[in-house]
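Researcher: Please predict.
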Amino acid sequence: MNTPNGKSTGVSLVVRGLRKSFDGQEVIKGIDFTVKPGEIFVIMGPSGSGKSVLLKHLIGLEPADAGEILINDEPITSPEIAAKYRMALVFQSGALLSSLTVGENVGLYLAEHRLKPPEEIARIVAEKLADVGLKDVLHKMPSELSGGMKKRAAIARALVIEPQLILYDEPTSELDPLSSIVIGEEILELNRRTGVTSLVVTHDRDLAFGVASRIALISEGRIVTIGTPDEVKQFKNPLVQQFLHADFKRES
């Protein structure tokens, strides 16, 4: 995907033969997928399917037993290679520090590492908050924000480093349906405007089918299918259909 100036900012991501066991039990069982530059790639699956463990590998919190992860065809096991690319994580909880204002939270990375002068950080923070529709919350505390606003503030914090890859961990968890739609629209708009590669880990079917370029459905540590939203809906595998059409049934 290209930005308005014609330059793509997204990177490719390749996961190849990834395996992970804990106490002799294999949790990730040979996962393979490729995310194209500028794509919104959704990893969807039920609780306990291996989504969280996979995400920890992608951000370097867990070493793999086997397999490799590559960004732009370079393995990220090397700190030098990992540092070469700008990758941001939007935490499930938002993870805003309660003792700092929203503006201080968003600009924390730049300030702590002294990457920009204070006046430049203030400009960037205001810009990124405006980008996610939060221009009036700069001086508020996180406790004054709704759940959806906290998620958007977390996205703004991720954007300050001008990421080439954003990983979203259950971005609509604990949100009401209307707030979930806002977050989905935000993911789509950022992708359209910046060309960033986005990987969304979720069990939210509406979000997955609303934002995804492609979806990978994971079950019991394996990728069951990968395809466009329409292709996944048509896939006849019983596991896929069971997850997609699970609903509450009440007897009349």
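Model: The chain is about 35% helix and 25% strand.
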